[in-house]
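Minutes, project check-in
Item: structure for the 365-residue chain
Input as provided by the requester:
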Amino acid sequence: MSIFVKNIKRNINPELFLQIVLTLSLITHIVYFVLFLIAKEESLAVVNIFSIISYIFSIKILIDNKTNAKLSFFIFQIETFVYVFICTMVLGWGYGFGLLFLTSTFTMLLPAFAYRKVNHTIITIQTIAAIICLLFLAGEPNRPYDAWRDIFMVINLSVMTFFAIAIAYLLEVSNKLIYASVLKQKDKIRMIVNHDPLTGLLNRTSMNSVMDKKSLFENINFSIVMCDIDNFKIINDTYGHSAGDALLVDFAGILHKTFKENDYVARWGGEEFLIITYNATSGEALKSMQQVKELISQSTTTYQNTAIKATMTFGMVSHDGKEPFNIKDMIRQADALLYQGKKRGKDIIVNEKYNHALWGGAEHP
């Protein structure tokens, strides 16, 4: 999912697209300005000067800071409404400016790119204004027919069509970003449910779910390791539970960095961890555990200016991928080996191959 979200952010840039829309609107108003001068509509040419200034300002603030996207879009909405209203009242119907009233209505489809309450207000006002224009002008132009009416009709129809396409694209962008946000939230929830909040490792429930999948372990070399921080209760009693938590986090970090991505590492409970080295021979698994043991011996947890040293004992059971197996029996065997290590002085690795006959388990269900 994270790759999907990154692709969306890389391929879709709504702020850049909005900047393009504003730039094209600016160019359109420059064209309007020239046409109104040629048509000797000086008052409307002056109106276009104010429109051009507003678009230059909205583009600048958007370039300066992408968080100004909503403000730039708001300026676009206001300018469009005021400009269309003035042109319609001066020229009347038939020049196509009345069609541009629809552009403000289209913006109601883009709550992610506009101020919601202001957006609804603008749409309501422009709808009322459009009705007033229609009633006041009786649907007729204020000028005798000339070629300019057809020219502006074609231009305005093209502008409205382009804007409708732009709105459709921005709506698609908005929906994809919302979908990506939902997926991201689902990932966060899944992370919370499946991982231990202190160490970030898998929790016991999620590890049990992994071990319930028989197909993952069939015909595969794997090992199960139970490991436990030595004298953890003494550490807690001496330095406090917060110090114990700091130690757990440091040890979990060592475990997380040592094992491969396809291995499984979980906080099994308290100061105990469960590890599954996946698709690895017993020799490879033992080498990894020796590396962990060495890193732990070199590490020191500092808590409130106090250096805390600790060790860990390991019980490891390996399966060669050929014999029948029962993971619950393997965990019991690893746990027994762990406590053998505790009795033998701690800070050691005790490892054996899985003994199906000895532990008497049935095949993995």
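Outcome recorded: The two ends are 32 Å apart (CA to CA).
No further action items on this chain.
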